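Hi everyone, sorry if this is the wrong subforum. Our group has a chain we'd like a structural model of before ordering constructs, and none of us has done structure prediction before. Sequence below.
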Amino acid sequence: MNRAMAFLAALAGLGGRAYVGGQAFAQAPPAAAPAPTAPAARPGGKVAVFNVAKVMRDYKRWQYYAGVMNQKRAERAADLGKRQAEIVKLQEEAQKETIAAKKEAARAHKAANPKQTYSRPKPKGDGTRTPRKN
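Answer:
Right subforum, don't worry. Here is the predicted structure as C-alpha cells:
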C-alpha cells in the first residue's frame, strides 16, 4: 500500500511540475488587434445540403434495390416460419415417442416380473432423521 501511495504522490508531483513549468514558458497574450477595415474573406469551398429521405424515396435504383431486399426478406421469413413449425412438430413427436417408449418398457418389465412390488420401503426407526455425526 505504501509503494502505491508513493508512486501516486510522485506522479502527482511530476504532473504539477510540468503544468507550472509550461505556464512559465507560455507566450504572453497578444495585444488587442485593431478592427479590420475590409470584411474577412470566407474560406473556400461550398457546402451542399440535401434531403437523404427524399433522395432515397425518388431515386429509381434505390427503389429497385429496396424492392429486391424486401422480396428476399419475405421469402426468408416464410422459410424460417416453415422451419420453426417443423422443429416444433419434431420436438412434440420426440417427446411423445419418449413417453410412449418409457411406458411400454415399464409395462414389459411389469409383465416379466409380476411378483416385484413398486412401493417405497418404509424408513427405519420412527421416521425422523437425525443429523449425521462426523
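For your construct planning: The two ends are 43 Å apart (CA to CA). The mean pLDDT is 79.
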